[in-house]
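Colleagues,

For the teaching module next term, I've prepared a clean inverse folding example: a structure given as tokens, and then the sequence designed for it. I'd like students to try predicting residues themselves before seeing the answer, so please don't circulate the second half yet.
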């Protein structure tokens, strides 16, 4: 990002984290989250609905954000859809300067908040200029098409991965996390084989994809972000049986290591092959 973008962070942004971000040492990703929220004096809400042990999850981030001198921080524990429709709670979340969505189970998260007042509040906060971060399950939930379940080990396999409805901050992408550490390339290729309209985004641990609305993207942290583009692909996936390995010809793979920046004024020109990806992911709502 340009220096101007860093100086004016309140544009509405997403910080999509591949899980296991550093919470004790240099905390680069969490520090950037606080900066994007406007500083340690801003209001931070930690949404723990993806976790079955929300108090334990809150304790982790309470300590981390407390160590960064964030004074106005509070948990948002949701145990039912009725709680997710509480008007007072939704209004408070809508006015937060930053919302951090923790890890756990993305299916649980969407079962509790999808289509509720809290769901609407998250979108309202983003539109107002807040930063919304999600790690692990919270990262997968960011897109409209959410990787819900499935496993593919050595090769992509038809029918082994399922999608669900996510929160929908970004469209036409599907996000996987713990990407390199859990060897999930075959899983993401399976998604793209069956859904070539979608771009696959795999985010390594302690790594984040920062997206600013109408702006650019930046990769933070220790690893890389992998982008799989199958829109020009030639494949036999429609004709093979489930559990078979599909033919996938002319699939594009982009590797964006930490420090990569595209789309903001003054940055390196965006390669043509990445221009569509940039337009898609920065169209956040």
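(Answer key — instructors only)
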């Amino acid at each position: 990002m340009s220096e101007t973008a860093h100086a004016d962070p309140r544009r509405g942004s997403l910080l999509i984290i591949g899980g296991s971000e550093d919470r004790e040492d240099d905390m680069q990703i969490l520090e950037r989250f606080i900066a994007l929220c406007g500083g340690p004096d801003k209001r931070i809400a930690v949404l723990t609905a993806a976790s079955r042990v929300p108090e334990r999850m809150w304790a982790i981030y309470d300590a981390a954000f407390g160590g960064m001198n964030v004074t106005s921080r509070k948990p948002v524990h949701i145990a039912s859809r009725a709680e997710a429709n509480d008007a007072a709670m939704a209004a408070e979340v809508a006015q937060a300067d930053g919302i951090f969505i923790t890890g756990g189970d993305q299916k649980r998260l969407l079962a509790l908040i999808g289509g509720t007042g809290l769901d609407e509040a998250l979108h309202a906060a983003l539109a107002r200029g807040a930063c919304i971060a999600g790690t692990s399950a919270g990262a997968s939930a960011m897109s409209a098409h959410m990787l819900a379940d499935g496993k593919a080990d050595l090769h992509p396999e038809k029918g082994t991965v399922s999608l669900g409805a996510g929160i929908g901050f970004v469209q036409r992408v599907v996000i996987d996390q713990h990407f390199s550490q859990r060897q999930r390339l075959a899983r993401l290729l399976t998604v793209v084989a069956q859904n070539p309209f979608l771009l696959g985004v795999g985010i390594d641990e302690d790594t984040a994809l920062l997206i600013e609305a109408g702006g650019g993207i930046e990769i933070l942290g220790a690893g890389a972000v992998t982008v799989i583009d199958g829109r020009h692909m030639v494949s036999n996936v429609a004709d093979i049986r489930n559990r078979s390995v599909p033919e996938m010809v002319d699939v594009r793979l982009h590797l964006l290591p930490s420090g990569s920046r595209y789309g903001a004024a003054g940055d390196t020109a965006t390669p043509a092959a990445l221009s569509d990806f940039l337009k898609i992911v920065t169209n956040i709502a």
